Amino acid sequence: xxxxxxxxxxxxxxxxxxxxxxxxxxxxxxxxxxxxxxxxxxxxxxxxxxxxxxxxxxxxxxxxxxxxxxxxxxxxxxxxxxxxxxxxxxxxxxxxxxxxxxxxxxxxxxxxxxxxxxxxxxxxxxxxxxxxxxxxxxxxxxxxxxxxxxxxxxxxxxxxxxxxxxxxxxxxxxxxxxxxxxxxxxxxxxxxxxxxxxxxxxxxxxxxxxxxxxxxxxxxxxxxxxxxxxxxxxxxxxxxxxxxxxxxxxxxxxxxxxxxxxxxxxxxxxxxxxxxxxxxxxxxxxxxxxxxxxxxxxxxxxxxxxxxxxxxxxxxxxxxxxxxxxxxxxxxxxxxxxxxxxxxxxxxxxxxxxxxxxxxxxxxxxxxxxxxxxxxxxxxxxxxxxxxxxxxxxxxxxxxxxxxxxxxxxxxxxxxxxxxxxxxxxxxxxxxxxxxxxxxxxxxxxxxxxxxxxxxxxxxxxxxxxxxxxxxxxxxxxxxxxxxxxxxxxxxxxxxxxxxxxxxxxxxxxxxxxxxxxxxxxxxxxxxxxxxxxxxxxxxxxxxxxxxxxxxxxxxxxxxxxxxxxxxxxxxxxxxxxxxxxxxxxxxxxxxxxxxxxxxxxxxxxxxxxxxxxxxxxxxxxxxxxxxxxxxxxxxxxxxxxxxxxxxxxxxxxxxxxxxxxxxxxxxxxxxxxxxxxxxxxxxxxxxxxxxxxxxxxxxxxxxxxxxxxxxxx
Amino acid sequence: xxxxxxxxxxxxxxxxxxxxxxxxxxxxxxxxxxxxxxxxxxxxxxxxxxxxxxxxxxxxxxxxxxxxxxxxxxxxxxxxxxxxxxxxxxxxxxxxxxxxxxxxxxxxxxxxxxxxxxxxxxxxxxxxxxxxxxxxxxxxxxxxxxxxxxxxxxxxx
Lengths: 714, 157
What we know:
The complex is a heterodimer.
Chain A: H1 3-11, H2 14-34, H3 40-50, H4 55-70, E1 75-79, H5 82-95, E2 100-103, H6 107-111, H7 114-120, E3 124-127, H8 130-138, H9 154-165, H10 174-191, E4 194-197, E5 201-203, E6 208-213, H11 217-223, E7 227-233, E8 237-238, H12 241-256, E9 263-268, E10 282-288, H13 292-295, H14 312-315, H15 318-323, H16 335-345, H17 347-350, H18 362-366, H19 373-388, H20 392-402, H21 405-418, E11 423-425, E12 432-434, E13 449-450, H22 457-463, E14 474-478, H23 480-486, H24 488-500, E15 504-506, H25 516-520, H26 524-537, E16 547-549, H27 552-565, H28 570-582, E17 583-585, H29 586-592, E18 597-599, E19 605-608, H30 611-616, H31 622-629, H32 649-652, H33 654-671, E20 675-678, H34 681-693, E21 699-702, H35 703-710, E22 711-713
Parallel strand pairs in A: 1-10, 2-3, 2-4, 4-7, 5-8, 7-10, 14-15, 14-16, 16-17, 19-20, 20-21
Antiparallel strand pairs in A: 5-6, 6-9, 11-12, 12-13, 18-22
Helix pairs in contact in A: 2-12, 3-12, 9-10, 16-19, 22-24, 23-24, 24-35, 27-28, 33-34
Chain B: H1 3-13, E1 17-21, H2 23-32, E2 37-40, E3 45-47, E4 56-62, E5 65-67, E6 72-76, H3 80-88, E7 89-97, E8 101-102, H4 109-115, E9 121-126, E10 131-132, E11 140-141, E12 148-154
Parallel strand pairs in B: 1-12, 2-4, 4-7, 5-8, 7-12
Antiparallel strand pairs in B: 2-3, 5-6, 6-9, 10-11
């Protein structure tokens, strides 16, 4: 099935929608609670650092682990591929004439499709984690790494259980369903010749594994049967128990918002076992490579091997929340799922799912191992975009228009002059919009599009003489495409405000795109051209106090992506680095310069935090705004959750974008604000467009326009 | 908040019952209650049974440590019957001398190291009853193991 068909099918699934939405809300609250009083940043840095190692170090840890367990008679097998691991496990079962094998939850076994392999050999694995068991009976695979059956309702589970047990199952009684699982699974531990578990950590210093579980099924799987097989990826190794405990401290908090799980079990092989003829358990460790080991030497992708499999990158992902893990991921799920699919299964398997990342960077900031997941996805998007090509229309637009500033300027001014038959004034807020976009596919019709400004920002800047204002205090302003072509008022409001405060504003000689649209679409060649255009048109940093941006996405690009794309060009790299250090969102500049305002009028105002303000420029104007307007400020639930824009993402994945926007609008309506302030023109385009489409009379303004209209400099 | 208060707060959060007792009060409980499996070396109490498929009613074990940070008890259960009893009892009761309460997870790192150096080691961190939220995220206890947990905190300081 094509990716868009899969997405559409999931978007129609009301159960999935409700379950994931409720979970996203509950998770945020419980996670915050679980980490209360702890310094998340320092905890995740610790985990990141202890997992920061090269192949040599991992193999040292492995050899130490192996030596520690082999000396007591445990067996260690190094599986090069998933198939090798499956075959070894099947052979152990056959050697012991074991028809059944109880399993506790193991994502690594999902990675290698172990159950499928064993069943083909006539062997029967039994999943004992409740969620996994439900899915095994339903012949499905997990849609979340920690809550595998999150896409199912109690009624669906009742039906699955009724079909399996032949008993009547009350479709509303979850407690009774859990009792059924207890009853039916209890016997499986005792009839299985082999028990299998994964490992959350593998401690080299004594050769011990650590298992983090809630149900207690891993304890029974590793205790009752006479043989224990541990399937584990090399990346789970750590030096000692202090490191292991540092991981155990964050894992459950990030996974489900629990302080700790009911059970954390530390097992050293060859424990007493009455079911084994020798009275001692036979223990096997299957260490899985399957493509991992190579990446320990990769400068970027080694980061992905720091994952502790908590699933939090899915928990906070707005796109995952819309489509679930059967689409957003493959064998692994969430942001890390997109990445590991590319690394373990190859880029062909990942090329479509990678595009579903909207680039909001929430995962990078939530990962308890400190993995910058979004950047890895972005890098992989560029790799697959170059290798498999991108949407040909986009490619043409990037190449022939966006990457050529002069042509872009003339085409868009022509557009601005000839768009009048299509434009109209929106009744709710008097803004000029495109009434009906010709031939717009139905799914893209979820927001109103702004009309092109009749004159660009740069044109008005010079025409109205703003370039004549001079002062000793100078800032440089990079308007970006949205302000230049759609929202010049945002830029002019800022210029007026700063000049009133005695600050001179200079702008680039020529407007050029920052390259983000091409980067997000996986088009590195055109991105590079755009970045060079922009960089060459930005004045050098001398004399300027700051490089101001009204679009944090452009600002983030200058700060981060420009460095990546100029690595082989020392002059440009140096310039990018110096400019990057100066990038400042306008709110921050006003705060730092202590520019004082007084409030005109009285209305309820709320604030949406743009993703790239908080996560690329490390700033949010929320406290600035709420301090300024005091009681008129009402907080917005999930203020820092993405609005669903993502540039061309909102056209490529219009239905996902629409779904994310709907939630934003729900929260805006719940706030009862009359005005929403934000400081990203992209967010304005998306949120304002959605509000106008739904005829919701909430005004949306960029911070600069809000200041111009509702505040006065004192 | 001291370690004991923190322990109780975290332990209550997961639904466990916590009772702070003197030795005498604990002895009274021992007289009154019946347990199917008992392993409390500090009081020289041992009642051995091998729990099978049908499970057992109650197990009473002394813990090696308590951890305030998470409201967790640490039980070395390498001995197989102890492991089976704590996994399969309907109700798990543990005895935690206050002198064994430590502040953070990392305080038991050395203990874990020591108990897993030789062949065969099995140390359990237990924080509440066996639980699941796999059906509609509704928290339900007793999916595989104990449905209830009680911590007898012995004031031995």
